[in-house]
Here is the input.
Amino acid sequence: MEDILNRLQAIDRRWLYLVIFAAVLVPFLSGLKLPAGVPSPATTGVYDYIERLPSGSVILLSVDYSPASLAELEPMAKAVVRHAFARGHRVIALALFPEGAMMINRILDEVVPEMDKTYATDYVNAGFKPGRVAVILGMGKDIIGVFEDTDAQGNALSKMPVMAGVKSYKDIDLLINFAAGNIPFAWITYAHEQYQQQVGVGVTAVMATDLYPFWKSGQLVGVINGLKGAAEYENLIQKPGWGAAGMSSQSIAHLLIIVFIILGNIGYFLVRRRP
Amino acid sequence: MGFIAGLFMVFTFFVPHAVGTRGSEMLLEWARIIGAFALILGLASLFRTHWDKIRRRQAQWGYSVVTLASFAFMVWAGIIYGTGEGPVGQRLVTVKSGALFEWLFNNVQVPLDATMFALLAFFIASAAYRTFRARNFEAVLLIIAAIIIMLGRVPMAELLHLPHGEAIDTRMPQIYEWIMQFPAVAGKRGILFGVALGAIATSLRIMLGIERSHLGG
Here is the structure.
């Protein structure tokens, strides 16, 4: 018994890595599908808001994450864009994060062919703009001006039907920020507080705790929370994607980590009780 | 000067008069231009740091060679090669689909960046086993909360049933939501108030010239 305890306490971490690797990989390879959970009110907040908007409304997407957070944020971004297109809304995408413009391309390249939408008429990629707070504040006065009347491909924004009647935040029905950093706080502080822009966010699970106070206070319409939020949103629009697929791996990994915690503590207490 | 600019921006935030608004818009435009230059500064700093490392043959300077070579290749792919069509001056790629730059981004940067972040799962698993110990009452509370949050975050909990047949998931997501919406929000609000007061104090110190560390002093 003592030998087992000692071995358990001194187990090579590479064995743990191997087990967690298998736990993540096997569900993907086996195609294991677990039942979807009940959508959280934070996720349905964003869904319901988009659902209530009249067709042709303008949704601004701020895509502010790098490939590091792609696994969590891209499925939810695609789900929201699918929802917006299905409801007949116009989508203006921009990035305050350097890699964001490329991430927008990844989202649109997949969703647009499915939804039969036209660039410049139904959607536009305005690209990356440095300056964060200055950009957010500037858009309160003149969105096209902030982007110097140029989209990510060098076309004139002012001549695009998708930008018709869009001057400032008062012409934007909803802003959704997909982020893995602190940019949502800037949108809340400046776009919402100064210009009363309605804001929703899609963030990594570790960031959700930081954003919940703003959702509870009504400063956010909703929070799409990590991979689970993405899976919930995919279920709401009845289009399961990578969010739902990833949940099987995440579920087993979570359960495994719980087992690790319990095993680690059993070993800790048994060793401590020894004379 | 910093004091006047800061005071002016605070004033125009609370008193949005047309005259002040024009001034604040101009300052915001300046901020956007400075923001763009900050990117150039960052690139220059990256180049200088790694170039110095290579020049002095410091430990692991080979990685710096890879960094600078990759940097130069991405700049070439984005600015010089660009779309690969027409004269060089017109090739500049922005975020055009199908360009070499996008191919490199999707097939090199995305997997590398995602892999780096994915390593976190292995470290968390190892830490959960080795260091997440119920050493005291607070640690026990933390472990219980962590287990509830982890179970509440996964639909797998729907498959787990209590002895009398009731699915755990019917209550686990509710407990999860309660923790997230009340204790977590209460704690977070306290932190946010502290951060906000700290930010106001720091801003005042900068405006009054007491805090000069951002100037390198």
Remarks:
- DSSP finds eleven helices and six strands in chain A.
- The radius of gyration of chain A is 22 Å.
